Amino acid sequence: MLGQQLVNGFVAGATYALFALGFTLMFGVLRVINLTYGVYFSAGAFLALALVRNVGFGLGLALPAAAIATGGLAVLIDALLLTRLRRAKAPELASLMVTLGATLLLYAVLTAWLGTEIRRFPPGLVGGAVEFGGIRISGAQALIIVTTFVLVAGLLTLLRRTRLGLAIRALAENPEAAQLMGVDAGRTVAFVSFASGALGAAAGVLIGLEYNAIQPYMGEAMMLKGFAVIIIGGLGDIGGALIAGLLLGMAEALTAGYLASTLKDAVGFVLLVLTLWVRPDGLFGRASARRA
Amino acid sequence: MIGYARAALAALALLSAGSTARAQNSEPVTLGAIEVLTGPASRYGIPIKNGFELALDDINAAGGVIGGRKLAIEFQDSAGTKEQAVNAARGLIGRDRVPLILGPTLSTEMFAVGPVANERRIPILGTSTTANGITAIGPYVFRTSLPEADVVPVTLEAAQRKFGIKKVAVLYGNDDAFTKSGWEVMKVALEKLGIETVATESFGAKDTDFSAQLTKIKSLDPDAVVVSALVEAASGILLEARAQGFSPHIRFIGGNGFNSPTLGEIAGEAADGTLVGSPWFIGKADPANQKFVAEYRTKFKQDPDQFAAQAYDALHIVALALDAAGAADPEKLATSLIAVKTTGVTGPFAFAPSRDPADNSGVVVLEMKGGRFRILE
């Protein structure tokens, strides 16, 4: 049972990390607590579902299409809500309140439009399972793990090895200086919004695929875990989010398996509080994407 | 000034009393009904309204109530909110002077509306409220819907008898009033039947990952898993169990949350073999039920559900009580209602002294097969 519980925890942890990637990117670089992120997660899942169900796309096509469309949506929403605030250099609390209001509105719209009934992708979209030594890993689980690691590697390369990454890090470090050095702030911000929206949507599709529960509020439930992961991993720390996500998933699975399932949800918040007490900059102590 | 207002009110009251007195034997008897007709929970409220309307047609076609008066219902929408439900009740009692209120749809609404009706001594009759403690609100609060505590034991007893279930694992949602009260009912019923519980696991209402709990349950190898969950979580649990390779011999037994066609739509084959108790089933063979189903399909172009059936029976029960009372008077109705004994599409019916239904012999145990429920053979 231990082996299977570790696999369960690893998969759950990979989903937390996958969800947290776009969130921590937005947080660390744009320095806004953008609560609409959960909506992108739900929107991505619904878009992919519509493409699979109504247009007949396979997952290989539906996943990127949903991610790109949701990325575009994120750019639009970010521009609508936050451009004015950024120009006025409004405090972080203002962006929190604005995005909170927008989130409630967007969820209400999604609910009115799509209803609260849960939906799922057609069974067998990602088939198969491998079993060795009594431990099972399904196709969807393998896909989640692989995608998470590929995206983390891709993001780290982007931030560290490319001019765009340099511009993003410069903007995160000091917006004024970056603009004086010729960084186009508007375009860079738009790119970060796009990337985090697309990452959120991809997470929504894969997690919706694994847990078969697509409904408008699915993003809201992940938000709390997402917060815990990016704080434990360090704000804006991509590698930190991966490790914190895996850690949280494993801790939860082992708690439910060997202690008591009533304590499962408490684990994340115990870890969160401990992190804030002992290492307020996150487990690895690297503050934000500035050093990503 | 206050004196004038009082006098005016008294005069008004006299006038309206006079008009009802004069109208006797000719004017229709109008009941009030508060149901969720808009919003997400309208998927319960609208079938209930349909059930009432179908019963209304029957009753009026058969000559009405109290020796020839037509029966009518004034419907009010609660939109699923307590506030709107209470306002509706105040209007029905104060303005429309109804002798009885049907509904409201949800247990939470009843906990708000029940005390209002009870205080004004107007009988109120829930047809879909299953939570514990509804009729404890007061002597004017009735319900015809079977509480979970009456349904779950029937399901477990059938599972024990048919499949020789000896040890089970229990899984329940620990942060929802309905699923938690369902779990308490299950615990008591399992003890009474002498079934051993090898593990009790829980999850949160918004959880979508049940892998850790189910891995643990699988390792304990129970004969069945007894689950108290709403349909969203229930579907996720069944799919995860199938993905983990649970043996088909391990039965999943659900509370009322499982009793939804959505379970089959979402979980598909993974739900096969799942057992659930229901106060009513569309495929029940008795002629009264077949007639109800056929008429409902003709009138509303869709299949009736449990809530429509319960509403249909409830209005027939009220009509019998009106006949026995001989007048559309709240006090007399409250007295005659408790004595009604009849058989409807949901089976034999009588009230217990607690104003809950006394008879659960109409409960059918259903088994999921190929994504659809059917009666357990």
Question: Largest inter-chain interface?
Answer: A-B, 39 and 30 residues
H/E element order of chain B: HEHEHEHEEHEHEHEHEHEHHHEEEE
Strand content of chain B: 15-25%
Tell me the distance between the termini of chain B: 73 Å
Low-confidence sequence ranges of chain A: none
Task: Output the strand order for the largest sheet of chain A.
Answer: 1-2
Distance between the termini of chain A: 37 Å
Tally of helical runs of chain A: 11
Give Rg of chain A in angstroms.
19 Å
- Assembly type of the chains comes to heterodimer
Number of strands of chain A: 2
- How many domains of chain A? The number is 1
Query: Helical segment tally of chain B?
Result: 12
* Mean pLDDT over the full residue set of chain B: 88
In terms of per-residue confidence, which ranges of chain B show pLDDT below 50 for 5 or more consecutive residues? 9-23
